[in-house]
Design brief:
The chain is an alpha/beta fold. The protein is 32% helix and 25% strand.
Length: 264
C-alpha cells in the first residue's frame, strides 16, 4: 500500500497540509478536490516524495518513502506534475524515452504506441518546444505511462497526476480520465488532483475534499458531492443532481451571491 500517515507541511509559519491520512488502494482512482490554495498539490508532492513533510510520513509497503532512493521510487510510482520544464531542445520521442528508465527492447515502437495513446501520432520527431501547452501535457502523460509500463509487474504501480486536465480540451480531458481508469482496471492505483467536479465524479472511486490543508470529506462521489459539502468547501450555494451513473453539478445550479438555499 501507498499511504500518507498523519502527514503535514508547514512553510514560513503557514500550515499548507494538516494531519492528512490517506491510502491509495490498487484498482482504484482517488481524486483530490478543493478550492484554490487548499493544499491539493502540496499533498500530492508529499505523497510523491518530492517535498519532505514537517510531520507524519508517506510510506510505500510500510517503508518511509524518504528512505527510498529516487531510482527505487521511479520504479513504483510515476508523477505527472502541473507543468514540466524541459531545459534542452529535446524531441518529443526523447521526452517520452525518459520514462522508460533506460534502454528497452522495441523502444521506438513502444514510443510510437504511447504517442498514439495520447493522440499525438507522428509527433515523435517534433521539437518539444514547438508544441502547445496541451500537447506538451500529453507528451508528459505519455512519459508517465511509459514509466508505468516498465515497472515491476508483480507489484502495484502508482500514477500520481497533478491537474492533468488543466490545459486540455474536453476530448483530451476525457482521454486522460480513460487512461486513469484503465490503469486502475489493470490493478494500479491513481491519485489525481482535479478542479472540475464533474470530471472528478466521473473518474473517481473515491473523492477527497481538502480545505485549508485539512481533509474535510472523503468517500464515493455520491457521498461527497452533496449540497452541504460544496457549500462548506467552496463557499457556494448549489444544487447537486444525480443520474444512475453518479452525481453532477450544472453551472446553472449555482445560486448568485447573496441568495441562500436551504440544505436538503
Amino acid at each position: 500500500m501507498y499511504t500518507a500517515e498523519a502527514i503535514g507541511l508547514t512553510l514560513n509559519g503557514r500550515a499548507l497540509v494538516r494531519d492528512v491520512s490517506l491510502t491509495l488502494e490498487p484498482g482504484t482512482v482517488t481524486v483530490l478536490v478543493g478550492p484554490n490554495g487548499a493544499g491539493k498539490s502540496s499533498l500530492l508532492k508529499l505523497i510523491a516524495g518530492e517535498t519532505a513533510p514537517t510531520s507524519g510520513r508517506a510510506t510505500l509497503d510500510g517503508t518511509d518513502i524518504r528512505r527510498l532512493s529516487p531510482a527505487v521510487l521511479a520504479r513504483r510510482r510515476a508523477v505527472l506534475p502541473q507543468s514540466a520544464e524541459v531545459a534542452f531542445a529535446f524531441r518529443v520521442d526523447e521526452v517520452v524515452r525518459i520514462g522508460l528508465l533506460g534502454s528497452q527492447p522495441g523502444t521506438e515502437a513502444r514510443i510510437a504506441r504511447l504517442l498514439e495513446r495520447v493522440d499525438l501520432p507522428d509527433f515523435a520527431g517534433r521539437s518539444y518546444d514547438s508544441l502547445s501547452g496541451g500537447e506538451r501535457q500529453r507528451v508528459q502523460l505519455a512519459r508517465a505511462l511509459a514509466q508505468v509500463e516498465v515497472m515491476d509487474p508483480d507489484k502495484p504501480r502508482y500514477l500520481l497526476l497533478d491537474e492533468p486536465t488543466a490545459s486540455l480540451d474536453l476530448a483530451h480531458q476525457l482521454l486522460v480520465l480513460r487512461e486513469a481508469r484503465a490503469h486502475a482496471a489493470a490493478g494500479g492505483a491513481v491519485l489525481a488532483v482535479l478542479h472540475d467536479l464533474n470530471l472528478a465524479a466521473m473518474a473517481a472511486d473515491r473523492m477527497v475534499v481538502l480545505v485549508a490543508g485539512e481533509l474535510v470529506a472523503g468517500g464515493p462521489p455520491a457521498a461527497v458531492m452533496t449540497d452541504a459539502t460544496l457549500a462548506s468547501a467552496f463557499r457556494i450555494a448549489a444544487r447537486v443532481n444525480a443520474v444512475p451513473n453518479g452525481p453532477f453539478l450544472l453551472p446553472q445550479a449555482i445560486v448568485p451571491e447573496g441568495d441562500v438555499l436551504s440544505p436538503r
